Amino acid sequence: MKRTGTQTRRQAFAIAVSLLALAATGAVAQDSGSNLPPGMVARQGGAQVSLQDIDAYAQKIPEKDRAGFFDSPKRIEGVIMNMLLQRQLATEARAAKLDADPQVQLQIQLATDDTLARIDLEHFRHVLKLPDFDELAQEYYSSHKDEFVVHGAVDVKHVLVSSKDRSEAEAKARIGEVEATARAHPDQFDALVEKYSDDPSKDKNHGLIEDGASAKMAAPFAQAAAALKKPGDISPITKTEFGFHVLKLIERKPDTQKTFVDVHDDLIAKMRKDYIEKQSADHASKFRGNPLEANPDLVASLRTRFLPAGVILPEDAAKAAAEAAAKKRAEKDAASAH
Q1: Cα–Cα dist 223/333, whole Å
Q2: In sequence order, what are the residues at sequence separation of 6 or more whose Cβ sits closer than 8 angstroms to the Cβ of residue 192?
Q3: Domain extents in the chain
């Protein structure tokens, strides 16, 4: 069978990646017999990609994500082949003097500005003097200890009355009976679950919901569970997307306070990230705050500048129709006056 260029290319990359992996273990020599000059990663159709090119490309990827991004032969192949394709197309464009077109030059300038703006902000962050986050973190922890409390799980039992197969009025009346009985006889809650609950899982859990105040539950349900304080407490009627509920607190496990050591690394990382982002935003806002002049007519014209010929925005069409109707009425009134 004759191999296509794509198959041959992918086989070459597979071999190259395999050699790279073996070289890393010492199983083969580093020199794979390539005729490329040192530092040259790949060459195709007169275009070439060097390690420096790859390094430059990597700068566009957040530093924390670079190792993971390149830990994929498929992504490595995609990067190299796309760069080679772009360079071959760019060479063809230059040969056709497409880069002499004023519109193309403007696009090149925009791309340059975009790159320089990104690099300028990266440079600002790199040289930014950072405060002592250890001291700041200790101060923040001491004054915000409540933010570092792990709330104990709240286990509840519940009765669900659905309005799926009954009217909402009927569902409200039914859940009202449940609430009244539960408050008068909390010890009979299990029987209420068996008699009234429409929850299909009650046959397995008998109405028990562990960690009922967690974010994985419907918000109104979680809030009702969290509000219960003592085992045996009964909640007010609570409505969720599933229907109407009455809850009974079974157990509230104690909250635990995280120590500063527990939160130190995460807190430092968050404070550092927040500080750099705020300083970067403030730096950019200095430029946004410079005096601004704009041509209101040209700005307004951008709404329709790129519409296909003959296409009118709905609001503009409605406005034009209203103006035409008003003009017609005025002409009719003028004719009647004569």
Answers
A1: 65
A2: 159, 178, 181, 182, 246
A3: 5-99, 101-149+257-288, 152-254
Percent of the chain surpassing pLDDT 90: 76
Q: Measured in whole angstroms, how far is the alpha carbon of residue 85 from the centre of its chain?
A: 31
* Per-residue pLDDT at 12 exceeds 60: no
pTM comes to 0.62
User: What is the CB-side half-sphere exposure of residue 142 using CA atoms within 13 A?
Assistant: 6
pLDDT digits (tens, 9 = 90+) for 53-79: 999 999 999 888 999 999 999 999 999
CA dist., res. 208 & res. 228, Å (int): 15
The CATH architecture to which 152-254 belongs is Roll (3.10)
Task: Select from 301, 162, 163, 151 the least CA-distant residue to 222.
Answer: 151
Q: What are phi and psi of 266, to 5 degrees?
A: -65, -40
Place of tokens 């002499």: 100
Side chain identity at 191, as an amino acid letter? A
CA 66 vs CA 5, 18, 83, 109, 314: distances in Å: 30, 21, 17, 27, 46
Single-letter amino acid, residue 172: K
- DSSP-derived letter for residue 51 is H
Residue predicted with more confidence, 19 or 244: 244
Contact 191, 202 (CB under 8 A): no
Q: For residue 210, how many other CB atoms are within 10 A of its CB? A: 12
In whole angstroms, give the CA distance from residue 248 to residue 227. Answer: 11
Distances from the Cα of 79 to the Cα of 86, 181, 259, angstroms = 11, 68, 45
Contact between 84 and 42 under an 8 Å Cβ cutoff? The reply is: yes
pLDDT recorded at residue 313: 76
CB 90 within 8 A of CB 49: no
331: pLDDT strictly greater than 80? no
Cβ-proximal residues to 218 (8 Å cutoff; 6+ apart), any chain: 240, 241, 242
